[in-house]
Amino acid sequence: MRSLLILPLAMSISAAQAVEWNGRVDLDARVFPAAASGTIESTQGMNVTLEGFQDLGDHRAVVELVGRYDRRDSGRRSLEARQAYLRFLVGEGDVFIGHRQTFWGTAESANPVDLINQSDGAAQDGKEAKLGAPSVSYEQDLDVGLLQLWYMPHFRERTFNDADAHPSAGLPMAAAQFDRDRGANADDVAARLSTYAGDWDLAFSAFHGTARDPILVVAGGSVTPTYPRLKSLGLEAQYTGDASLWKFEVLSGEQSGDDVLAAVGGVEYTLYGLAGRVWDLGLIAEVSRDDRPQATADQMNTLGGRLTLNDTQDTSVLVLASRDADNEQSFYSVEATRRITKTSSLSLEGRWYDADRPTLPLGVLADDDELRMRFSVFF
Amino acid sequence: MKSWLSVLVFSASAALASPERGLEIAVEADARDQGFGDSTSTMSMVLRDSAGNTNERAIRNRTLEGADEGDKSLVIFDSPGDVRGTAFLSHTKKAGSDDQWLYLPALKRVKRIASSNKAGPFMGSEFAYEDIASQEVEKYSYNYLRDETLNGMDSFVVERFPVDKKSGYSKQIVWMDKAEYRAHQVEYYDRKGSLLKTLVASGWEQFEGQYWRPSLMDMTNHQTGKGTQLLYSDWVFNNGMDEKDFTKTALKRLR
What we know:
The structure holds two protein chains of two kinds.
Chain A: H1 2-14, E1 20-31, E2 42-56, E3 59-70, E4 78-90, E5 93-100, E6 133-142, E7 145-152, E8 177-178, E9 188-197, E10 200-210, E11 215-219, E12 222-227, E13 229-240, E14 244-255, E15 258-274, E16 279-290, E17 299-308, E18 316-324, E19 329-341, E20 344-355, E21 370-378
Parallel strand pairs in A: 8-12
Antiparallel strand pairs in A: 1-2, 1-21, 2-3, 3-4, 4-5, 5-6, 6-7, 7-9, 9-10, 10-13, 11-12, 13-14, 14-15, 15-16, 16-17, 17-18, 18-19, 19-20, 20-21
Chain B: H1 2-16, H2 19-32, E1 38-48, E2 54-64, E3 72-79, E4 87-91, E5 99-104, E6 109-113, H3 129-132, E7 140-150, E8 153-162, E9 169-177, E10 183-190, E11 195-202, E12 205-207, E13 211-213, E14 216-221, E15 227-237, H4 248-252
Antiparallel strand pairs in B: 1-2, 1-15, 2-3, 3-4, 4-5, 5-6, 7-8, 8-9, 9-10, 10-11, 11-14, 12-13, 14-15
């Protein structure tokens, strides 16, 4: 597997004269107002992202390297090749070799069909934080849509924050367990066809391999991430109406012998020109059903709003509130971002967890409420 | 004799003030721009507020001429840094709403976006989405008003009314020179009928011996005092692009 990573890196370094580089540095300060005793109450971190690409005739080399350091949380320290691949033009399609990142899905609150990349959970950076998938993949634009075929020979484990960091279960993580005999060396295959017709965007996918979401088994004073086998089919659909986007995605299949179903559906409706200004307010309502043992709850209902001021600083605020159907646990988040200069921006974020009982999935996170300020510089 | 002449001129121009004549002019302007195949250009977008502070964005444009349907276009942002790599794909429709997608590079995600936001500001500028979209003939109904001399050029003055009810305008008035059918000035009237914005296009250059493009489009919002300049450069025509360069797949792979 190492050669898959080094090959594109070596090629882009040898062509360093002409490689186009750019990147960003994020500095963040986080405080945890509900921190339990013995856990960290605040920390600071730095994230450096470096992106480069080089066209080599019809082929292309792409790298996206992320280096992250956190003063208190060793789980949040890493060097990751989020992307490092070569793309070869082969006949009517493209072959990609190396670490690659892609996104499958259409919903906002959860994306059960997004199965290619493992989440870089410890980064605490939302959907953007993914681990590169070591892979050989093929893409071709057919008359019926875009076909993707994936072969992933090596499984990437989810990353976790330290036991005394946030969010965490407050217990050390034990070595991962796998339902598949070859563990992290068992290979995965996946395929997807995405297309659109008129106001509909559709995608169909299939996956056979190791589930990305681990089941967290608490025993003997530690947490063991256990990764089941997964054979599944996925469907994504979006209908684009006048001011409303109707979104639906479903994952259906068999997980280590059990039938599983995870589905998200909802609508995003935008009010344009709010309050006689050029402000837009997008209202989000989604329902997520998930009968997998990894799920936070059988049903989560999410309401949210995205306010976009459409000013020269691109100021925006996103508010989300999720609650399970039994009204036992909730999650709230706020994120406000604003450009400061041509090369910098500032964001303020808050997350709150609430649960009736400490044994509920979000109850485990009761001391993990967080306020964060992040300053980003782009170069 | 003199009075007879003015009566004659008056009735002649009154006879010419017509929807038919307005449509003829729009069709002729469209015909003169046909056959460009594709084009690329770079654009600097300078936003200015009412106090005169300015704020700049660097953008690349790619356009594919449509045959039966409208044009397809790609807009790629190079700066400011926080939106670098963000790209906007639009498939213009002659009738109905355009199809639009946005590529978010941090998420590697292509998002279909609602196109009813046509009256909304494009990237915080004084240009609405519908102002920067391909100006297909079918998107308006027309009325020729009069001839007028603008900046020394003999010009047609035509008013046009958006067909789409979601347009932010009740009407637009266009000054187009008679020699080359270039739109030098456009006045935009809001839904209440008040003058909202004026666009002035200048620095015209001719490419491939046929296609005229302005090097500066200056939009002033009379109601807010804000403005936006679009400074175009590096126009290249007939790059050999085709439909495959304007798909969701192409959007993900842009550089």
